[in-house]
Specification:
A hairpin with a 5-residue loop joins strand 9 and strand 10 (141-143). This protein is elongated. It has no helices and 11 strands. It has strands spanning 22-30, 40-47, 53-60, 65-73, 86-90, 97-101, 107-113, 117-126, 130-135, 141-143, 147-149. The chain is mainly β. It is 0% helix and 49% strand. The strands form 4 sheets. Strands 10-9-8-5-11 form a 5-stranded antiparallel beta sheet, with no helix packed on it.
Length: 150
Amino acid sequence: MNGTQDLNARVSKNDKLKANENYVAILSYSLTGLKDSEDYFAFKQDYDSNDDLDWYGAYNDQDNAASIIVPLNIQPASVKANKSSTKGYINVRRNHKVRTYTSSGCFSHRYVYGHYTYSFSAKKNIKHHGTCYKLSGKNQYVPVSKVTLR
């Protein structure tokens, strides 16, 4: 409709908004509290018989309500880097390999080595492995029993 928003798609209270989608919010407010002695004007949007968009002024008294149509574009949430990373020492025999796991608890086919210090960015409880620390910048988790924080 020549760049105007589609008002037919409705979103209910419990629906989740999708990223990179366009929506329209209708904000309504009451005009109560306005002085009786003054005239107030609002501008309305309407379609004429030729389906052309037309703006016109209309009188609103204090008993009427007004609405504003606001176009919305939902952007995906940005992921912020965790600046509070923690250093941790792998407390096992020197050069001993310690398995790392993915966030779902599967073996990641990667290892960390004993007597080395690594940077950890998060802590998570993984099923069958207990609490684990996440290696910074990687999807690898090390069981807390193998790490001594510094």
